[in-house]
């Protein structure tokens, strides 16, 4: 059936499933009813008494009563009659000549008086859904001593406990169509679901591979329906994406090579410019003040260009996949205090106060890539120093918790704009006017910081403090055990 449905449209598959459910339910119901009919026929002979079954027993019981006659009024006769009719489905009542009850399984008075009793001898009459046959008991002298009344019903009855099982079976057969519809609905719906799950699972796996940037796969599903066409379109999209990404990757490689070659080519002339400008400054210490000023500007801008070239080369290295961390044991408290001391030298020039707050087990050495962490802190704190006005504050909070170190660096500057928080980690983003450096920068600082933190197994987020000013929060993983 799966092969039949595979190449059909989803609407056709639904119709086939519906028809199969109805047809299978009807067929199963017909088989069940036929089996129930056969069972009923068999039960008529083995398990079910006909409606007149007890009526047919009356002649034999009548002969027994007439044979025993007056002995039935003795204890032994009473027991014999009781044993004969026990569990037979026939009730009985022994009465005297006046119609008074002597014993029996039915103790409700049947005959009001002697006249009615005599009237009912050897006859069958009906009272309260029971048929009653009366056999007189007469002694050898012809005197009527009483009678035995036999009570029975004209209806089908069952043989022992098998009858209860037959009732259960017939009831189940009667309601079986509902179970068949439910069962076949579950069966054929599962077949239908499986027929569409295969291509859907293939598409989900393909989407995951694309997410993982793995385009070397095929979607092995061919069908002339909506899902087949969807898989074919997805395969075409993957092929086009592969071509596009290959071209993009090639262009990116070329771009990286050009930037790398350009950066390396710039290093030499910039070094020469710096060298000659320093030499001219040294040679003209007593010369024109205007000339010294121009030479200083040339030297400063040459140094700035050299720094930008170094940042570009470092950013290119960060984008490479072969990252090798070099963790070393670091006592975080001592390390952070030394770093803050270095920043204080620059902060004093702008009268900026730097505070450090450390929480957690800072005395226990932890393994961390010290060089990368230093570069992260240098970039973030230098930005805060640059954008915090004179007389402002920079607060550095550090918390060591489990296998992570959490940092929050806040300043009292003007903070980040919404655009800054959305794009600050983009390569070469220069920021809006609120956070743009007057001296200019490469737009690579936070780009480098984000890559470094990700290499350290952490993440970074930008925000603004409630009282104003920018806040940079980030964390990185550590290893506590040092062998």
Task: Describe this entry's structure for a reader.
The protein has 483 residues and is an alpha+beta fold. Helix 8 runs parallel beside helix 12. A five-stranded antiparallel beta sheet has the order 3-2-6-5-4. Strands 9-11-12-14-13 form a five-stranded mixed beta sheet, with helices on one face. The protein starts with a helix and ends in a 6-residue tail after the last strand. The relative contact order is 0.06. The chain is built from twelve helices and 14 strands. The chain folds into four domains: 92 residues, no CATH class; 82 residues, 2-Layer Sandwich (Beta-Lactamase), CATH 3.30.450.20; 74 residues; 150 residues, Heat Shock Protein 90, CATH 3.30.565.
Number of helices: 12
Structure class:
alpha+beta
The oligomeric status of these chains comes to single chain
- How much helix is in the residues? 40-55%
Q: Order of SSEs, N→C? A: HHEHHEEHEEEEHHHEHEEHEEHHEE
